[in-house]
Structures are given as C-alpha cells and as structure tokens.
C-alpha cells in the first residue's frame, strides 16, 4: 500500500491535526504531560501564508490560517520543503540540519511542538 501523496499545505496541516489526536488518544503519558499546558505553535511558510495551532489545557483547541501575534514556537519552511517532508522525499532531521526547516523556540517548546508534529 502506497502512502498518500500530499499536494497542498492544507492537507499537511490536516495530517498534523490528525497525528496530534492519534498520539494524544493512544498515549496516556502524553496526555498527562500536556495537561494544563497552553501554547501557540506557528507554521510560517516562507513563500505564502501560515497556520497556527492553539493548544489549550494540552489539547489542540484551534487551528487558524494566518499569523499569530505572539507564538511560543515558530516553524519556518517553504511550501515545497513542507510537502517534500510530508511526502517522504526529505527527512525532517535533514531539513532541519540544512536550514530548510527552521525552528525558533525554547527547548521545552521544541519538545512540545514535536508532540504536535511528531
């Protein structure tokens, strides 16, 4: 069975949301660790708009198109590279180490962002 091919940023964002909830429901330790946390994680596209994920009490409460005024973590990437990562054409760690994906966050928020992006 072939993995789905992602053609749009919106499809990637939907996959991020689904992945968050899949991990959240499958892992009681993750739920306990996230309980009470509130964060905003911004996905900033270098060649377009962005999306932000608002986490309230450890749950993904809202995903919005646009830029948040005060995000806790910012992931910056081009649309092309985002699609390449989601389509398995570019490994996430390789993208980060080569600067194709940039992350601006505290160490704690990096770990928190990983729970969303996985």
Structure description:
- A hairpin with a 4-residue loop joins β1 (39-45) and β2.
- The chain has a 5-stranded mixed beta sheet with strand order 3-2-1-4-5.
- It is α+β, with helices and mostly antiparallel strands and 118 residues long.
- Helix content is 42%, strand content 25%.
- It is globular and about 35 Å long.
- The longest helix is centred in the N-terminal third of the chain and has 18 residues, at 9-26.
- It has helices at residues 9-26, 28-34, 79-86, 92-97, 107-117; strands spanning 39-45, 50-56, 59-65, 73-77, 101-104.
- It contains 5 helices and 5 strands; from the N terminus they run ααββββααβα.
- The mean pLDDT is 90.
Key descriptive features of the protein:
single chain, 118 residues, alpha+beta, Nonspecific Lipid-transfer Protein, Chain A, 5-stranded mixed sheet, 5 helices, 25% strand, globular
């Amino acid at each position: 069975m072939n993995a789905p091919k992602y053609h749009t940023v919106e499809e990637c964002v939907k996959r991020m949301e689904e992945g968050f909830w899949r991990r959240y429901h499958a892992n009681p330790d993750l739920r306990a660790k996230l309980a009470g946390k509130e964060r905003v994680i911004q996905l900033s596209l270098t060649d377009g708009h962005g999306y932000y994920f608002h986490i309230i009490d450890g749950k993904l409460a809202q995903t919005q198109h646009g830029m948040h005024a005060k995000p806790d973590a910012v992931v910056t990437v081009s649309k092309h590279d985002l699609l390449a990562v989601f389509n398995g054409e570019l490994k996430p760690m390789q993208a980060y180490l080569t600067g194709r994906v940039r992350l601006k966050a505290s160490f704690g928020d990096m770990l928190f962002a990983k729970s969303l992006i996985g």
